[in-house]
Please model this.
Amino acid sequence: MKKIVTVLGARPQFIKAAVLSRVIKAHNTIEEVIVHTGQHFDTNMSEVFFDEMMIPIPTYNLDINRMSHGAMTGKMIVEIEKILNIEKPDALVVYGDTNSTIAGALAAKKMQIKVVHIEAGLRSFNMKMPEEINRILTDRISDLLSCPTQTAMNNLKQEGFDSLPVLIENHGDIMKDAVTYYSKLSAKKSSIIKDQKLESNRFVLATIHRQENTDDLKKLTAIFAALEEIHKTQPVILPIHPRTKAILKKWSIQPKVTIIDPVGYYSMLELLKNCSMVITDSGGLQKEAFFNSKHCIIVRDETEWTELVNHGFAKVVGSNTKTILETFQFYKESKIDFSTELYGNNIGENIYQSIYQLIH
Ligand code: UDP
Model:
C-alpha cells in the first residue's frame, strides 16, 4: 500500500485533516502516518479536536512549541527529516500556512519526496504576515497544489506556476466539508448555547488572534473598544486564543465582553449556527460564517478570501473602532441571500483522488 505522511500542528490544520483522514480511511488504499509538530499543544487547542473529530492518533508527536519562528521551524525540519527517513512515504501532505507547513514541505522536498499543499494559492499580499511567507514558499516547492478557490488558482497563474511541472487543481475549500459533516452532529454534542445562556440570533461571535492585532496595542485596544460597545447591545462571546490571552494579561486589559476558553469544534459550530454575526481576524472563521449564512466583519487590512467581500458577505474593516461599529449597524439591517456556491463540493474526495493519481 502507498503511504503518505501528514504533518500538522495548529488548530485549523486539525479541522482540515479530520476531513481528509476520514476519506483516506474509507478508501483504504493509502496508509496515512500523522506527525503532530506540537505547535498548538493546550488540550483545548489540540487534543479536543483529535477526540471530537475522530482524527487518527498521531504516530509522532514532536512537542515543538514556545520558540521563535526560526528556532521552531528549524527544529521541526530536523525532526521531520528523521521521520521521513524511517517512514519513506510516497508523499507528504501539509495544510495552510503555519511553521509546521513550511517545515514539513521543506524537509520532504529536499529528500525528493512529493509535497502536497492543501490550501495552495492563497495570498494576502502582505509580506509582513508570517503566514504569507510560509504559504508562498510552500507553494513553490509543492508537487500537487490543491487550491480552495478560483482566486487561488489565478494567484498561482499570475506568479507563473503554469509553466512549472506541477499539478494545480481547484478542489474547493476543505473547510466546507468539515462544516457540512460536523454540523449534523453539533447540536447533540454541544450544549454551549444553553450553558452560556445565549439567545439564538441575539449574540455576536468574535475571535482575535492574528499577530498583526495582538502585537499592536493600538489596534488591539481599538478592536476591543468596538467589541465592548457592541456588547452593550448584544452579548459578544469571544473564545480566547492563548496568544491573545497572554497579551491581555501582559497589558492588564480586561475587556467587558464574554471571554471564554477556546472551545471544541462542535461548540464552535453551535456558536456559528446561533450567532447574529461574526467579528474575526481568523481565516477559517470567515468562511464558516458564510457557510452558516452569517455576515463577517474582518478586523484585518486584507483577506485571502476575497470572494466573500466581492459578494457582500464580509467586509474588511481593519482595526478602526468607528468602522467596525458602522459595519455592525449596516449588517444588522442586511437581508442578503447567502445561497451562492463559492467553495465547491465533495472537497475531501476531490483531494483524495488527486493524491491517489500523484503517487500511483
Ligand atoms: N475554532 C475552534 N474553537 C475556537 C476558536 C476557533 O474550533 O475556540 C476553529 C474555527 O471554527 C476554525 C478554526 O478553529 O475552524 C480557525 O482556527 P484559527 O482561527 O486559529 O486559525 P486561522 O483559520 O485563522 O488560520
About this structure: The pocket of uridine-5'-diphosphate is lined by residues 11-12, 15, 207, 209, 239, 262-263, 265, 268, 282-285, 288 (CB under 6 Å). The domain at 2-173+344-359 is CATH 3.40.50.2000 (Rossmann fold). The CA atoms of residues 153 and 315 lie 22 Å apart. The first strand starts at residue 2 and ends at 8.
